[in-house]
Amino acid sequence: MKLHNSIGPNPKVVRMFMSELGVDMEMVDVDIMAGENRQADYLKVNPAGQSPALELDDGTVITEITAICEYLDDLKGSTSLIGTTPEERAETRMWTRRVDIAIMEPMANGFRYSDGQEIFKGRMVLIPQAADDLKAIAQERLTWLDGLIDGKEYICGSRFSMADMMLFGCLEFFSQMGQPIREENKNIVAWFERVKGRPSAEA
What we know:
The structure is a single chain. The protein is α+β, with helices and mostly antiparallel strands. It folds into two domains: 2-75, Glutaredoxin, CATH 3.40.30; 86-202, Up-down Bundle (Glutathione S-transferase Yfyf (Class Pi), Chain A, domain 2), CATH 1.20.1050. Helices cover 51% and strands 7% of the residues. It has a four-stranded mixed β-sheet with strand order 2-1-3-4, covered by helices on one side. It is globular and about 50 Å long. The protein starts with a strand and ends in a 7-residue tail after the last helix.
């Protein structure tokens, strides 16, 4: 297997997941800043032009970070990162989707439509007038999550999961791109430092 890798929060999530699983594989770096992901060679790998993409030994390509992580977890025989019981797996998938849709998506589009316009113009439809509202939505949902993780070690309680990695990858990246973590969200701040201390955070 090999991972088509790049800068950005999505590849970071998969690299963290691989690190937590103890999985190592060939990395093929894709220069998204130069638009390599929009060129014909890469579009043959992933027609959506997105990174990361997991290429299997038989040529099959799996994209979308949740699908990649769940596939790698399945190969390991189901771990606590996704869940070892139906209840744990449902909990992880619930929180992963909430993080993805409610926080990561508006935060990413808020960046694309403002600070990231020079990178994304000509590659997608941009809505600059929506940027501030999208950033506000992401922060509102972070404050909501801050209340829900009060007294918890991780999003799923004491169990570190894919939901934590998705949120960490998002916040680590976008906090450097004009969307810092608000100090008043003390539970999120403490959680972020806790995750940052894990060896996989360096992946």
